[in-house]
Design goal:
Structural class: mainly alpha
Distance between the termini: 23 Å
Order of helices and strands: EEHHHHHHHH
Strand order of the largest sheet: 1-2
Radius of gyration: 18 Å
Largest sheet: 2 strands, antiparallel
Length: about 170
């Protein structure tokens, strides 16, 4: 196999390595079985539900935090994917983590939140490459904030470039 990921005997390059590495670690801890893989999906599902609660509680309304998490948990697709051996639930977690830290940066202007935005974006890219599609959304949101005079254009540009550099270093 020469250190390559393999899928039915063929080299498998469709997905970056993070999710496979996490599955491998889970297999080493819990033994090589389907259950070891399901644990990974369940943990990412739980983390996404917790992150939903934290996001809504912190940025929207404490009253809506629990109902928002329950709506997510009882969504049939979320429930299915958080019990399957698929990349999607981990991808969703890292996308939402990126949004959480980005919005946190917009609220508090702390460099730490900006760094964590880049790190979570980089980890998301290491899970599934289509995560790069969030990058234009971040840029558009920053431009909207410039338009609304919430931040200045140079600050927005520096923030955006910083996020991309940190994500690139992680990736």
């Amino acid at each position: 196999m020469n250190g390559e990921y393999s899928y039915y005997g063929d080299a498998y390059y469709k997905h970056p390595p993070l999710y496979m590495a996490i599955l491998s670690l889970s297999s080493k801890i819990f033994g090589f079985s389907e259950d070891a893989g399901y644990i990974v999906s369940i943990v990412f599902g739980m983390l996404t539900a917790i992150l939903t609660y934290l996001f809504v509680s912190k940025f929207i309304s404490k009253k809506l935090a629990i109902p928002s998490s329950l709506i997510l948990i009882f969504n049939p697709w979320f429930s299915k994917y958080s019990r399957d051996l698929r990349f999607e639930i981990a991808t969703m977690f890292f996308l939402f983590l990126t949004v959480y830290f980005f919005y946190s940066y917009i609220q508090n202007k702390r460099k730490r939140s900006l760094v964590l935005t880049g790190v979570s974006l980089g980890l998301g890219l290491l899970t599934k490459t289509f995560v790069f599609l969030i990058i234009p959304s971040l840029a558009i949101f920053l431009l909207w904030l410039v338009y609304k005079k919430k931040i200045l254009l140079p600050e927005a540009a520096k923030s955006f470039i910083f996020i991309i550099i940190v994500a690139g270093l992680v990736y």
